[in-house]
Amino acid sequence: MKFKSLLLVGGALLTGTAASAGGYQVTLAGQKNNGMGGVGVGLSLDQAAMFYNPGALAMVKDRGVQLGVNGTLARNSFVAEGSNTQRELRNSVVTPFNFYAGFGPAEGKFRAGIAVYTPFGSKLQYAEGWEGRTSLTDIDLKSIYVQPTFSYAVTDQLSLGVGLTVLAYGAVNLQRDIALPDSYGHIELDGKAKNRIGFNAGLFFKPNPKLSVGISYRSKIDATVEDGDVKFSNIPASFATRFEATKFSATLPLPATTSVGIGIMPTEKLTIGFDVNFVEWSKYRALQFDFDRQINGSTVSTSKRDYQDALTFRLGGQYQVTSGLTVRAGAAYDESPVKDGFVTPETPDANRVSLTGGASYSFGKFGVDLSTQFVKIQKRTQTQADLINNATTDRIAGTYKTNIVIPGIGLNYNF
Amino acid sequence: MNTTFIFRKTAPFLALLGLSLSACQPDLENDNKPSAGTADFTTYIAVGNSLTAGYQDDGLYLQGQQNSYPALLAQQFKAVGGGEFAQPLFSPGESNGTGYLQLTGFTNPPAPATPSPILTRVTTSLATGRGLGLDGKTTLLTRYTGTDNQNLGVPGIRVADITTPGYGLNNPQGFNQYFERLLPANSTTSYLAYVQERVTTLKPTFFTNWLGNNDVLGYATTGGVTPLSTVADFTAKYNQMVDVLTANGAKGVVATIPNVTNVPLFTTVPTAAVIAQINATPIPAALVPVLLAQLAPLGVTTLPAGTRFGLYIKTNNTGSAREATAADLLLLPASSYINTPSATSPFPNGIGIVIPGASAALAGALAASANALPNVMVLDAAEISSVTTRTNELNTVITAAAARKGLAVFNANTFFSQVASNGFITNNVSNNASFISGNLFSLDGVHPTPRGYAVVANEMIKAINSTYESRVPQLNPNDYRGVRFPQ
User: Which InterPro entries does the record cross-reference, listed alphabetically (chain B) (predicted)?
Assistant: First the structure.
């Protein structure tokens, strides 16, 4: 009953937020992992291995289904350069979710599964009339991957796996105000991404009961919107002829990620994981919109991004307190892919520090996972002089700081 | 399976998380707390000219007054201990003050000509009910009867005028109607004495002083007809003013004189393009006999090859005309005057004939026959040089006075030069020094728009903050409009 209603909630709010990894990446793919700083590449905890390391899936003893939902509660503050007015987001809660179902013979050497998760997303609604209104007022970026997965244990110690990552759903809604000489107009871009296919693959090696290592890779997918809708509002008649576009197209790279992880099991009850993720953000050079007709004399709008590749370091562990109860803790440090002077309101990014905690209780075949993450996106200031030097004056000078709390709950049933 | 148990157990946990969120909002305000530093903003007065009064769109009116940079500064000073700021506002019933220019549309000429703006003067709700003054030409404005005035901006005033008795007295020799409306009837008070009285009464702790623009602007806007103030006179009077303002230990900011040749009044008409267009226009056959008749006394019987039209200007009110060069600046009104038909000349306004390689006598005769642009529509290269030199000389006086008293300096000259060459971005919105489309200059091409005044206020705040180690918050200039377009 609860399970069903959770599914409905997930269905209604399919989105992530710029939450637990740099840029617009979201790594909230498994509730157990969420409690452990997001480690998982070198572990074989549960069906979420399909996301973290499909190679480890074959080493997951249980078969089953699991569903997790997270609420990302972001609190962002911004003060424009020279101002003393703190701008705060119109707060919204978004709910990245994950769903896994894993199958296979009880004693066989392979596992198959299907995963549904939200690897990228962002939703921010800035304060009415904030200083950056002509750069951005609202963004809602969603993606859902569906991933059929197959994993095979070559030996008792070595397994590998591959998945097809299908961008099954992608949507962008981007809004900003238009500066007119004596008023503000508004533009809304709204479009759905075309379905695209990529892959992920992983290797998992467990030489002895106390040690495991893994490596995994998820390929880049270009989320491409064609024929997105352009809507103008509040444009006075005297300027109407300058805003003619009705359709847009754009491409946003969902970058490739390479991860390595190590798992250490000093005792049967204690598991410690350490992961490093390498995200190829440098593919994100510019955000370009092409319009069918002109906007203020141009059919193209380009904004420099020049992201740089970024590393994330994760450390986490779990301890089985009783036969039913397991507790977790972890931390992560996430390098921002955004260079100084390039911070945009759509991704008010900086290096992030996360602390996480979690607990599971299992009732035989049924289990509940709770997790929570506290993410601190460090204070970051860029000056107008920085923007002028970088030719990035299409964004705004000032100081951003964000804290995010992400409680989550997962249910799993093993068979 | 007892799942409700789990939910009952976790609900308080989740609720606690929710509560902790209110504490989770990052606090940046603490890092950006306003402070007065070593200055005291309790009582502020503003001394200056039209810029200080909030003049724009070739008029002084209520909305302009409300958006004057002193009003904006006073609003920001409130965050650091500033008090109320009284201005000599026009009443709501006379909100259009002197009247002002409004953009009411654009012309729709046949190509290749481009549309030009249609400017119309607002003539309702004026403050001009007192009619003309005793000089028979200056319009009297409804008197401001308040005794609390802190915005002492008087449009048109030069530093050269500040010690002149009767400068605001309605008299047959002429007077300044903006000063007249601030004074009691029949007062012969000079501006300096008026400021002295305000200082004595209000005991200001902080001031701004942006005088000096009209000491060069008048020369420039009249094409060199009104004389430039002399350096000696300016130096003496400017320092007198600064002494009055600082006598009680008040701190403040002074502003330099922008190079007026950077404003749209002088830069909108593209001289080189106008000259090129005139030069390229073929001479109509019908005009040839007329020209030859004029040139016959000089021995010209046929028009030599290469004979063409040229743009002629007068560089003073009495002397002869000469052909314009790209180094001359054409004032904004020239755009609707050049190449229009003339009642007194066979040539359209501004136009004459050029014969390449002509003798000096012939060239002189051609210049004399041309329908040259009047001096007031042109700031010729020599005048530009005089204006720039004098502006720099007077700015040296201003910065020296500031240094003598330890005052902050808003270098408006440097700032507006940069605006003219690079534009100026305010929170992601592009602005520049272009007429109408640039957002910063109002329809008179000299005075800022509300956006422009907000930018000025911010620049002054930067100067204040850096001199007095204060943290006066800046404005968001984008909250203030550029040129108002027809609805």
Answer: GDSL (IPR001087), SGNH_hydro_sf (IPR036514)
Decide if A378 touches B, using CB distance below 8 A.
Answer: no
How far B52 CA lies from chain A's nearest CA (Å)? Answer: 22
Residues of chain B in contact with residue A407, where contact means CB-CB under 8 angstroms, are: 14, 17
Residue to substitute from A17, A75, A84, interface B, most B β-carbons within 10 A: A84
Q: Are B17 and A86 in contact (CB < 8 Å)?
A: no
CB contact under 8 A, A131 and B478: yes
SS3 assignment, position A413: strand
Structure token pair of residue B15? 């609720």
Rama region for B445: left / alpha / beta (φ>0; ψ in -120 to 50; rest): left
> Are B3 and A181 in contact (CB < 8 Å)?
no
User: Does the beta carbon of A107 lie under 8 angstroms from any beta carbon of chain B?
Assistant: no
Chain B residue with minimum CA distance to A359: B10
To the nearest whole Å, the CA of A205 is away from the closest chain B CA by: 36
Q: Which residues pair with B435 in a beta bridge?
A: none
**Does residue A11 come out as left (phi exceeding 0), alpha (psi in the -120 to 50 range) or beta?**
alpha
Q: How many residues does chain A have?
A: 415
Chain B interface, best mutation among A182, A369, A374, by max B CB count within 10 A? A182
Confidence of residue B20 (pLDDT cuts 50, 70, 90): low
> Could you tell me where the DSSP H helices lie in A26-86?
31-34, 49-52
Domain limits, chain B: 44-267+380-479, 271-330+339-372
* C-beta neighbour count of B201 within 10 angstroms: 12
Residue B473 to residue B475: CA distance in whole angstroms: 7
β-pairing verdict for A64-70 and A398-414? antiparallel
Domain hosting A248: range is 2-414
User: How many residues are listed for chain B in this entry?
Assistant: 487
Ordered mean pLDDT values, 10 residues apiece, chain A (415 residues): 30 34 76 96 95 94 92 91 92 88 87 93 91 94 94 95 95 94 95 95 96 96 94 92 94 93 96 96 93 93 93 97 96 94 92 95 94 94 94 93 93 91
> Quick one: pLDDT at residue B9?
52
Sign of the torsion formed by the C-alpha atoms of A379, A385, A390 and A393: positive
Q: How many residue contacts between A and B have a Cβ separation below 8 Å?
A: 121
User: What's the N-to-C CA distance of chain B in angstroms?
Assistant: 68
Contacts of A395 in chain B (CB under 8 A): 428
Is B429 close to A134, i.e. CB distance below 8 A?
Answer: yes
Residues B394 and B232: their CA atoms lie apart, in Å, by 9
Burial readout A376-409 (b: 16 or more C-beta within 10 A, e: otherwise): bbeebbbebebbeebebbbbbbbbbbbbbbbbbb
- To the nearest whole number, what is the mean pLDDT of chain B? 91
Fold type of domain B44-267+380-479: Rossmann fold (3.40.50)
Pairing label, strands B408-410, B251-255: parallel
Which among A48, A1, A3 is positioned nearest to A147, based on CA atoms? A48
List CB contacts (< 8 A) between A403 and chain B: 24-26
- Residue B112: asked if its preceding bond is cis (omega within 30°), the reply is yes
* Number of domains chain A is built from: 1
Distance between CA atoms of A187 and A175, rounded to whole angstroms?
Answer: 6
Structure tokens at B223: 């094409």
* Cβ of residue A393 closer than 8 Å to a chain B Cβ: yes
Q: Does A158 touch chain B (CB under 8 A)?
A: no
Q: Give A286's DSSP letter.
A: E
Give the domain CATH number at A217: 2.40.160.60
Q: What are phi and psi of A59, to 5 degrees?
A: -90, -5
The dihedral through the CA atoms of B88, B93, B98, B101 has a sign that is: positive
